Amino acid sequence: MQAPAFKDKKQGVSAKNQVPAQCRPPSDSTQVPCWLYRAILSLYILLALAFVLCIILSAFIMVKNAEMSKELLGFKRELWNVSNSIQACEERQKRGWDSVQQSITMVRSKVDKLETTLAGIKNIDTKVQKILEVLQKMLVLNSSPQVTRPLQPPKVLGFQA
Protein backbone atom coordinates (compact mmCIF):
# COMPACT_ATOMS: atom_id res chain seq x y z
CA MET A 1 0.00 0.00 0.00
CA GLN A 2 2.87 2.24 0.45
CA ALA A 3 3.79 2.10 -3.18
CA PRO A 4 0.72 3.88 -4.50
CA ALA A 5 0.97 6.50 -1.77
CA PHE A 6 4.60 7.00 -2.65
CA LYS A 7 3.69 7.56 -6.30
CA ASP A 8 1.15 10.17 -5.25
CA LYS A 9 3.73 11.93 -3.08
CA LYS A 10 6.08 12.06 -6.03
CA GLN A 11 3.45 13.81 -8.10
CA GLY A 12 2.85 16.35 -5.30
CA VAL A 13 -0.66 15.33 -4.48
CA SER A 14 -1.68 13.40 -1.45
CA ALA A 15 -4.40 10.81 -1.60
CA LYS A 16 -6.40 12.54 1.10
CA ASN A 17 -6.79 15.75 -0.93
CA GLN A 18 -8.02 14.06 -4.11
CA VAL A 19 -11.67 14.42 -5.11
CA PRO A 20 -13.14 11.31 -6.62
CA ALA A 21 -14.03 11.62 -10.32
CA GLN A 22 -17.45 10.19 -9.76
CA CYS A 23 -19.85 10.51 -6.89
CA ARG A 24 -19.91 7.79 -4.37
CA PRO A 25 -22.40 5.13 -5.09
CA PRO A 26 -25.41 5.59 -2.92
CA SER A 27 -25.23 3.56 0.24
CA ASP A 28 -28.97 3.95 0.60
CA SER A 29 -31.32 3.24 -2.27
CA THR A 30 -33.28 6.52 -1.62
CA GLN A 31 -30.23 8.75 -1.88
CA VAL A 32 -30.29 11.29 -4.79
CA PRO A 33 -27.43 11.30 -7.31
CA CYS A 34 -25.09 14.30 -7.03
CA TRP A 35 -25.54 15.40 -10.69
CA LEU A 36 -29.15 16.14 -9.82
CA TYR A 37 -28.03 18.80 -7.32
CA ARG A 38 -26.04 20.56 -10.02
CA ALA A 39 -28.97 20.41 -12.44
CA ILE A 40 -31.35 21.87 -9.85
CA LEU A 41 -28.81 24.61 -9.01
CA SER A 42 -28.54 25.41 -12.72
CA LEU A 43 -32.33 25.62 -12.99
CA TYR A 44 -32.46 27.98 -9.98
CA ILE A 45 -29.84 30.19 -11.60
CA LEU A 46 -31.82 30.21 -14.87
CA LEU A 47 -34.98 31.05 -12.92
CA ALA A 48 -33.21 33.93 -11.15
CA LEU A 49 -31.92 35.22 -14.51
CA ALA A 50 -35.45 35.00 -15.95
CA PHE A 51 -36.79 37.05 -13.02
CA VAL A 52 -34.04 39.64 -13.49
CA LEU A 53 -34.84 39.79 -17.19
CA CYS A 54 -38.56 40.23 -16.40
CA ILE A 55 -37.75 43.06 -13.98
CA ILE A 56 -35.55 44.78 -16.57
CA LEU A 57 -38.21 44.41 -19.27
CA SER A 58 -40.89 45.72 -16.90
CA ALA A 59 -38.75 48.76 -16.12
CA PHE A 60 -38.18 49.33 -19.84
CA ILE A 61 -41.92 49.07 -20.50
CA MET A 62 -42.68 51.53 -17.70
CA VAL A 63 -40.17 54.05 -19.12
CA LYS A 64 -41.66 53.72 -22.61
CA ASN A 65 -45.17 54.01 -21.17
CA ALA A 66 -44.21 57.26 -19.41
CA GLU A 67 -42.74 58.65 -22.66
CA MET A 68 -45.85 57.70 -24.62
CA SER A 69 -48.06 59.24 -21.94
CA LYS A 70 -46.17 62.53 -22.27
CA GLU A 71 -46.51 62.40 -26.05
CA LEU A 72 -50.23 61.64 -25.79
CA LEU A 73 -50.72 64.58 -23.41
CA GLY A 74 -48.92 66.81 -25.92
CA PHE A 75 -51.15 65.52 -28.72
CA LYS A 76 -54.20 66.10 -26.53
CA ARG A 77 -53.16 69.73 -25.91
CA GLU A 78 -52.56 70.28 -29.61
CA LEU A 79 -55.91 68.72 -30.49
CA TRP A 80 -57.62 70.90 -27.87
CA ASN A 81 -55.97 74.02 -29.34
CA VAL A 82 -57.01 73.06 -32.86
CA SER A 83 -60.54 72.34 -31.67
CA ASN A 84 -60.75 75.76 -29.98
CA SER A 85 -59.39 77.46 -33.10
CA ILE A 86 -61.96 75.69 -35.26
CA GLN A 87 -64.77 76.69 -32.89
CA ALA A 88 -63.64 80.33 -32.96
CA CYS A 89 -63.44 80.20 -36.76
CA GLU A 90 -66.93 78.69 -36.98
CA GLU A 91 -68.31 81.41 -34.70
CA ARG A 92 -66.71 84.16 -36.81
CA GLN A 93 -68.07 82.53 -39.95
CA LYS A 94 -71.54 82.26 -38.41
CA ARG A 95 -71.46 85.94 -37.41
CA GLY A 96 -70.36 86.80 -40.95
CA TRP A 97 -73.21 84.79 -42.45
CA ASP A 98 -75.66 86.36 -39.99
CA SER A 99 -74.57 89.85 -41.07
CA VAL A 100 -74.83 88.80 -44.74
CA GLN A 101 -78.35 87.46 -44.14
CA GLN A 102 -79.32 90.69 -42.36
CA SER A 103 -77.97 92.69 -45.28
CA ILE A 104 -79.88 90.50 -47.74
CA THR A 105 -83.09 90.95 -45.73
CA MET A 106 -82.58 94.71 -45.58
CA VAL A 107 -81.90 94.91 -49.33
CA ARG A 108 -84.99 92.81 -50.06
CA SER A 109 -87.16 95.08 -47.95
CA LYS A 110 -85.75 98.14 -49.74
CA VAL A 111 -86.31 96.47 -53.13
CA ASP A 112 -89.90 95.71 -52.08
CA LYS A 113 -90.39 99.37 -51.10
CA LEU A 114 -88.94 100.49 -54.41
CA GLU A 115 -91.21 98.09 -56.28
CA THR A 116 -94.28 99.40 -54.46
CA THR A 117 -93.12 102.97 -55.09
CA LEU A 118 -92.53 102.17 -58.75
CA ALA A 119 -95.97 100.56 -58.98
CA GLY A 120 -97.45 103.68 -57.39
CA ILE A 121 -95.61 105.89 -59.85
CA LYS A 122 -96.81 103.78 -62.78
CA ASN A 123 -100.34 104.00 -61.38
CA ILE A 124 -100.03 107.77 -61.16
CA ASP A 125 -98.60 107.89 -64.68
CA THR A 126 -101.57 105.93 -66.08
CA LYS A 127 -104.00 108.21 -64.21
CA VAL A 128 -102.24 111.28 -65.57
CA GLN A 129 -102.50 109.86 -69.08
CA LYS A 130 -106.19 109.18 -68.59
CA ILE A 131 -106.68 112.71 -67.32
CA LEU A 132 -104.81 114.09 -70.32
CA GLU A 133 -106.95 112.04 -72.67
CA VAL A 134 -110.10 113.32 -70.96
CA LEU A 135 -108.77 116.88 -71.14
CA GLN A 136 -107.92 116.43 -74.76
CA LYS A 137 -111.38 115.17 -75.52
CA MET A 138 -112.86 118.08 -73.62
CA LEU A 139 -110.64 120.49 -75.45
CA VAL A 140 -111.66 119.07 -78.78
CA LEU A 141 -115.33 119.29 -77.88
CA ASN A 142 -115.10 122.82 -76.47
CA SER A 143 -112.87 124.24 -79.08
CA SER A 144 -113.73 125.58 -82.43
CA PRO A 145 -112.89 123.85 -85.59
CA GLN A 146 -109.29 125.00 -85.24
CA VAL A 147 -106.55 122.52 -85.57
CA THR A 148 -105.09 121.75 -82.24
CA ARG A 149 -102.18 119.66 -81.50
CA PRO A 150 -102.56 116.95 -78.91
CA LEU A 151 -101.21 117.52 -75.41
CA GLN A 152 -98.09 115.60 -74.50
CA PRO A 153 -98.05 113.94 -71.11
CA PRO A 154 -95.36 115.33 -68.81
CA LYS A 155 -92.37 113.21 -67.94
CA VAL A 156 -92.75 111.97 -64.40
CA LEU A 157 -89.49 111.00 -62.74
CA GLY A 158 -87.99 109.93 -66.03
CA PHE A 159 -90.82 107.55 -66.96
CA GLN A 160 -92.72 108.02 -70.15
CA ALA A 161 -95.75 106.07 -71.15
TrEMBL record:
Entry keywords, A to Z: Membrane, Transmembrane, Transmembrane helix
Matches recorded under InterPro entries: MCEMP1 (IPR038818)
Keyword Calcium assigned: no
Region (Disordered): 1-28
Membrane-spanning parts: 35-63
Superkingdom of origin organism: Eukaryota
Residue ranges, compositional bias (Basic and acidic residues): 1-11
UniProt cross-references to PANTHER family, sorted A to Z: MAST CELL-EXPRESSED MEMBRANE PROTEIN 1
Protein name: Mast cell expressed membrane protein 1
Organism: Pan troglodytes
Lineage: Eukaryota, Metazoa, Chordata, Craniata, Vertebrata
